[in-house]
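Open question from group meeting: does this chain pack into something compact, or does most of it stay loose? Before anyone orders reagents, we agreed to write out a predicted structure and look at it together. Recording both the input and the output here so the notebook holds the full record.
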Amino acid sequence: MKLSLHLALLALKQIARHRLRSILAIASVAVGIFLFTTVEIMQQSLRVATETGANDTTLVVYQKNRFCPMTSRLPEHYLSEIKRIDGVREVIPIQILVNNCGASLDVITFRGVPADNLTAYNPDLEIIDGSYQDWLKRGDGALIGENFAMNRRLSPGDQFDAVGVRVHISGIVRSDLAQDNNVAYVHLPFLQQSSHVGLGVVTQFNVRVDSPDLLDPVAAKIDELFRSDAQATITRPEKAFFAQTAKEMIELINFTRWLGIGAVIGVLALVANALLLSARGRVRENAVLQTLGFKRNAIGILMIWEGIILGLAGGAFGSLSAGMYYHLKRFTLGNEGLTLAFTPKPEVVIGALAIAVMLGIVASLVPALIAATKPVVNSLRA
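Structure tokens returned:
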């Protein structure tokens, strides 16, 4: 253990001696790990948004054979009929208006909801600025998510105009649900009139059931209830609805997996190349170390320590920079009224750092083998 720590300090000194080469190697690793961490943040955010968990109890009722929110129109009186179904705990009608139904980074989503149902349906909604009472009093009031407010630099009291709708910012909200942090909640009658769909028509119903095992049975009952109506429905769990509706967005994010694989291969090649150059440049130094009593395996371990240090330094800079960047920028990707927030999790950043260190070890194996097996006499003659 003591020998290993001494070799680590010696490896650090070797890296410091060749500053330019080491800085270039660390910078290259940082860029590769930054890209890899970005891809992992996207993939992890997608999994959270699409994989149904044990605590998910929300269904989305949509008009059958309709996709964009502008084409789904359901009678608001469905609300009372859905409430009577066994297993249904809460129902909220929602009118959705978006500026773009396709996959886009700049999606503005208005959600019209009954004023008295919002907090009952989503009690975890937290007002972090402004006034909920002001929203209740103003017909044109809007409660906007904190990401929505940050990206557009909006504060309570401001006016906001988009998609032909002009609203007064009454408050900024925060929620554990990513969708709530990226939309603007307005009064249902106000949005129905502003979007010209008319009173009594909504885009969808969000239904909360008593337990997760009731999702499929309740969904089947809702669709059977309205099967013969003019506006037939299709009901799915919220995350399954997201996965089905946002296909373009999911395909786009899945493609980034190849970028992550490319970044890993690039980091592996860069570290291996830097260590091979280091092994070639220190042939005589390694021979001198062996004549002073260093064993062959110590020379190999010294090279492995260099790989670990390069991977650790570049990985720390790249992964932490990516995590901080996405935390501050709060990027979102929207599709058909649904929003996917790219939220960095600590486990993703730590995982990327661990992969960087592992790549440093793997990349150092061949240079370590070359340095450890080269005969002393030949090295001294080099």
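Observations to bring back to the group:
The chain is about 55% helix and 20% strand.
The longest strand covers residues 88-98.
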